[in-house]
Amino acid sequence: MGLFILRRVGVMIVTALCLTFIVFFLTNLYPNLEKLAKTQGNMRMTDDQVTSYLTRNGYLQPLPVKYGQWLGVLPGWTGESPEGDPIGRCVERNLAPEDTPSFCGILQGDWGESTVFKDEVGKIIGTRLGLTGKLMFWVMVLMVPSALLVGVLAGMREGSKLDRSLSTFSIASTATPEYVSGVIFITVFASSATGLKWFKGTATAAADNATFENFFLPVLTIALYGMGYIARMTRASMTEVMTAQYIRTARLKGVSFRNIVLKHALRNALIAPFTVIMLQFPWLLNGVVIVETLFNYKGFGWTLVQAAGNNDIELLLACSVVAVFVVLVTQLISDIGYVFLNPRIRIA
Question: What pLDDT score does 205 carry?
């Protein structure tokens, strides 16, 4: 198991480097850099002024060099402002030139500075990721038990009225996008037009003080969409297990139906849904973009939209790194958990 984990970690590092380089390449294409220069300077800047700005700020260096500086394996670029002051990736205003570090990339914990929020990217990501983490936690609390319950109930008695009803509900919830269900929930439960103004139509205040009134609708919107998929997977797995030979043997021995489900069928039926549940974490991290924008909840997804819309390269790269890291880690946890849930699997 230890060797397996080491191999997977090695593959994860190589994959992360490849993916981040691709994102770095795409965000540093010249049209994006030109837009950044005009956004930070003047939209009427000439081509010469754009080139001068990009050269002065180190954006026109060779791509491998810039990527190495961003990672922190190469010394950061240095230059001078039009006023003659030293500037550069590693230059800090409160440090003397001789105290300025040579390496200042993400390996040193320096994520750069956001051109939109005018703050350290690491601080922004930490704050916004914490808010999204709170949203993800309550989504999982609502989504996972509900989905497993629906899937197990539907799969216990295949073809029954309960199975057909729950399966129809699962398909309908999965087929309805978040932006549709979110708008419907806001219109029905947060609008004075219907007289059912039970909840807030915005979750902005939930960032500081989350309450049932201002936080339930975004949680329900996300949970409802993911719940149907997990429920369908659980139902399919449960149906397959309930027809297995050892379940028939348990029935012939007179074991109660309740004990058959809880002690024999449930653990084996949860092997496939476990993988699906773990894959919900990267989906939630990136899939909350629509919901956070719809409910104006300023978490990670909202920040990603702002970074992409305003061409904030440093912030956009940081969001990409976090997303890649979460995907790779959850896949590793999923593989390890799969081995423990299914003793028949052995790591060579």
Answer: 82
Burial of 22: CB neighbours in 10 Å, binned 0-12, 13-18, 19+: exposed
3-state secondary structure the chain: CHHHHHHHHHHHHHHHHHHHHHHHHHHCCHHHHHHHHHHHCCCCCCHHHHHHHHHHCCCCCCHHHHHHHHHCCCCCCEEECCCCCEEECCCCCCCCHHHCCCCCCHHHCCCCECCCCCCEHHHHHHHHHHHHHHHHHHHHHHHHHHHHHHHHHHHHCCCCHHHHHHHHHHHHHHHCCHHHHHHHHHHHHCCCCCCCCCCCCCCHHHHCCCCHHHHHHHHHHHHHHHHHHHHHHHHHHHHHHHCCHHHHHHHHCCCCHHHHHHHHHHHHHCHHHHHHHHCHHHHHHHHHHHHHHHCCCCCHHHHHHHHHHCCCHHHHHHHHHHHHHHHHHHHHHHHHHHHHHCCCCCCC
- The angle at the Cα of 292, spanning 170 to 209, to the nearest 5 degrees, equals 105
171-217 pLDDT tens trace: 888 888 888 888 888 888 887 666 667 788 788 888 788 888 888 88
How many CB atoms sit inside 10 A of residue 308's CB? 14
Full-model pTM: 0.77
Residue 42 has which token pair? 């003047």
Q: What is the mean pLDDT of residues 29-53?
A: 83
Tell me how crowded residue 40 is: count the other CB atoms within 10 A of its CB. 13
Residue range 306-310: average pLDDT?
83
